[in-house]
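Example record

One chain of 254 residues, shown exactly as stored in the release files.
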Amino acid sequence: MITHDLLVAPGLCHGFFARDGGVSEGLFASLNCGFGSGDDADRVAENRARAAAQLGVAAERLVTCYQIHSAEAVAVGTPWPRETAPRADGMVTSTPGIALGVLAADCAPVLLADAKAGVIGACHAGWRGALAGIVESTVDGMQRQGARLECIVAVVGPSIGKFSYEVGPEFPAPFIAADPTDADLFKPAPRAEHFLFDLAGYILRRLGRLGVGAAAATGGDTAAEERQFFSYRRACLRGERDYGRLISAIALAP
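Predicted structure tokens for this chain:
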């Protein structure tokens, strides 16, 4: 479990979980927390229970959404059954004892908190969601629950690194159209007319433009660091049939 000093505060617990410490096997070894994978559901449930225990909450109080690469963020008052999870990519709560979890395997998990106000957030930020505004939607939801913008801290967890994330020639256009200063987040790739994209850097830049109190990234390249992380990109390059999902979560102590 990876933590960051920005999110260390009384009454707050968080973790960006790596792939070790679970019960899954094969492609999913070992802490695969994604029910959407082809892994055995009982093993996924046990893995999620282990993650929840490290956060100090009951397994049924670790909630995740049906993630759709959107800018939709929802408020969480009570945990929901997995079968009725909302279609969204961000969550906020001011309720102690609920862990907000996001799943990723190259996309960026972002955990946020205003510890003084007792409000937390979490979002799943792939390029689509980040460009659409998932970070902004999550921060807005936190403010609706009493968080103050200048008191919010945010940490971007392990994601595909800027030296691993090759994108096509059409990719930079919508980002640069939205803000021309983001052109420097795209560097030439070894393949002609392709680019390397800094996803974590892009999310940090959007957090900075919002004016949150502080933002940082844990580092870690999910595509390149196989021992620690699952990766959709790596699985695709190898022609593997499936891949595990990492979980990152944050909770207010009950």
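Notes: The chain has one domain: 5-161+198-252.
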